[in-house]
Every structure is written in structure tokens, then in C-alpha cells.
Amino acid sequence: MTTIAPLAGVRIIEASMLGPASITTNLVDLGAEVIKIEAPGGDYGRQMTWPIIENTSLLFLHANRGKRSLMLDLRTDEGVEIFKELVADADVVIEAMRPGALARRGLGFEDLRKINPRICFMTISGYGMTGPYRDLPSHGIAYDTWAGIVPPAYDEDGFCYIPEHVSVGINAGPLFGAIGILAGIVHARATGEGLFMEIAQSDAAAAVDWLRSETHRAYERPESEVTGNAADDYERRAPGTAGMKEGVRYQMYETADGHILFMASEQEFWRNFCAGIDRMDLFEKWPGSKYADHARGNRELLAILTEIFKSRTSAEWMAFGGEHNTPLGPVNTPKTLADDPQFKDRLPWLPAETHGADMLPTPIKVVGAQLPDPGIAPTAGQHSDEVLTEVLGYDAERIAELRTKGVLG
Questions:
Q1: Those residues with Cβ within 8 angstroms of residue 69's Cβ, 6 or more apart along the chain or in another chain
Q2: Which of 106, 142, 158, 241 is placed for a possible disulfide with 138 were both Cys, Cβ 3.0 to 4.6 Å?
């Protein structure tokens, strides 16, 4: 199969630490060249979070795969000048740390656009460049608690703790940021002018959870203007998936060996299911509405379906769904997901032998081609000589002089 790198020729200079470095992970996977500028000592994200794999965190290995590392002391004049030289022929500069960190070194957007008018500058931070929280130190979970995504939980002794959850802001922020970066590149190549953009991971968490917050907002209006679904007699449900608790035709059920998600909210699918199990009596008694009907609160039907679903394994129900055109979904855990046949087909692991850890590839696919292998995340300063030689044309004597001065860490 042909290998294609859609972002070949895109060069990104990234000053990053910790999780926000994932703003370019998918761009690297798509073929962009990312030069990660590391301060002397390197990104301490290599030691943050668990697991630590042969002295480097999985977080760092995943977020920084395929990047080139140049160690540069931006507290020195020479370090600042080298950064500027790199920017002269780059498309994007990323400030993945507190906003203004580069500007304090004379490397802000206004400084860099004088060198390269087409440069796109993206700042990614916790709470963004404005607002009362802009200067607060923070970590990833803060953006989800701020956005109302992760509620407090309590243990058996009554102590509050952080419940298990998927981190939204720290993952969505970099993805929104990557979209902005690509938009900036398109704009710059069309107009010759770069853009100064920013993304807050807290904003991204709120944006992903738009349905719940917008529903609460809509419910502030009179019930004569904002109602529930016709299938619920227009009664308002709790926002988001909280309104699924009393669902029957859209619900999780226990199977003979696990669980299955049943999603027959459309009348057509409900009919198909009842015919498939030879229980058309259920459809005749509770045909429901044409669309969006969960048979909410029907405890009698809930008890019947509970027993029906226990009669087959999850795999048997998945086969049933395909045979009878009924929406049924597997209920996996992060541990069992890799055994699912759909996962095996769509998301083959990037292997530990060449990436430091088994990790998921980008979900973006090019039909009829394959993306280049991004390769392993760098050690601190691993590509310093290489970048200075290949990109800036420095000779060995010049590099040795910089190293003696401590410019390269």
C-alpha cells in the first residue's frame, strides 16, 4: 500500500511541556515535521503520571511520538537567535505552556511575524489568555471539574475523591488547537499573513459537553417554548445522558457473559427486534412513537427485556443485530477494548518495539493509502545537532561552540 503524508512540508516549532504537547501528535502522524524545543533538563513530562515505561512516562511517549527534540536555553541571546532562525522557514509556532512565556523572551507573535509574516502562532493553556483564572496553575482534571463534567464522589467513610472518568479538556483542547493550526496554515498560504490563535483546555471541555450546558440554558425558557420529546409527552428530561436512566428501549442490559447496549429508539428498529426474537406481542402491546421513543419508565417491559437479554451471549446479540437490522453495541472496558474485533480491524497498535509502548494510532485514515509511521518520542535534545545541521546549516565547529557556552543545555 502507498504511504502518504498529507502534511509533508509543514514545519512546526513547538515549545511544550506535559500533556498540551499532544496538540501536534496527530499532525505528526499526518506527516508534519515538529521540532520540539526543550529547556535544559528537558520536558519533565517524561516523569509525570503513570505508567513509567523504562524511565519515560506513557504520556510523554504518546504525546511526543515522531517529534525531533532540540535542547535550547532561551535565557541566552544565542538561544533566542536560533529560535528566530528556525521560525524564518516555519509554518507554525506553538506555545504549549502559560501564555506569554515566549513573549517574555522576545519570541511572541509580534516579534516573530517581523521575521516571518506568514507564521501562525498558537498558544494552548489551561484557562486561556483572559479571564480571572488565566494565571492560575492547573492540571488536566481541573478543566473537567470547571466544565461540570466530573462531579465529586464519596468513599465508604464519607471522604470526597475524584471518580474514574475520561479526561475531556486535556484531550479535546489539543484537538481543537490542531484544527486551528490547520486553519491558520490555510489562511497564511492564501493571504501571506499569519494568525495569532489560542485555545484553553477548559473552554474545550465545555465545548465538548455543549449538549448538557445548552440544555440547562434552554430549560431556563418557559415550558411553552422548550419541551421534551413527543415520545415523552413533551415532558422535560434531565440534560444529556442523565435523561437515559429510565430508558427501556435504549438501555444497557446484562447478557449471558457480559453486557450489551440496546438502542431501538426508532419504531422500525423496535419492530425488527421483536420479530427477530419471535415476540411480536411486545411490539403490538407497546408499539411506541415513530422516533426517539425509549419506552421510558415502562418497568414491565424492562423486566421482560432483562430476562430476554440474559438468554444469549454478547457476541450472539451482536450477530443478531447484524442479521435483524437492530442497533446493538458492545459494552467494553478500557482493558477489554483491544480484544474487540472492531478495534483489531480499525486500530492496530503502534508497537512498543518501535514506539516505546503499545499505543493507539491516529484515528484519521487515508482511504487507499497508509500514513507514515511516526516513530518513537525523542530523548531530551536527541536531535539538537541534526536540526542545527539540516535545518540551519550549522557546521560542527559552530555547534561545539554553542554547546560549550551552554546554549544547547
A1: 35, 36, 38, 42, 378, 379, 380, 381, 382, 383, 384
A2: 142
Domain boundary among 331, 360, 378: 331
Phi, psi of 67 (to 5 degrees): -90, 160
> How far is it between the farthest Cα atoms of the chain?
86
Burial pattern 2-14, b for ≥16 Cβ within 10 A else e, equals eeebebeebbbbb
Write down which residue in 280, 302, 331 finishes a domain. 331
pLDDT in tens, 116-126: 999 999 999 99
β-strand partners of 198: 123
Can you read off the three cell numbers belonging to residue 256?
Answer: 449471558
Would you tell me the crossing angle of helices 314-324 and 267-276 to the nearest 10 degrees?
120
**What whole-number distance in Å separates Cα of residue 407 and Cα of residue 409?**
6
Residue entry with cell 490555510: 186
The residue count for the chain? 409
Phi and psi at 13, nearest 5°, equal: -100, 120
Do 315 and 371 lie in one domain? The reply is no
pLDDT at position 231, please?
Answer: 87
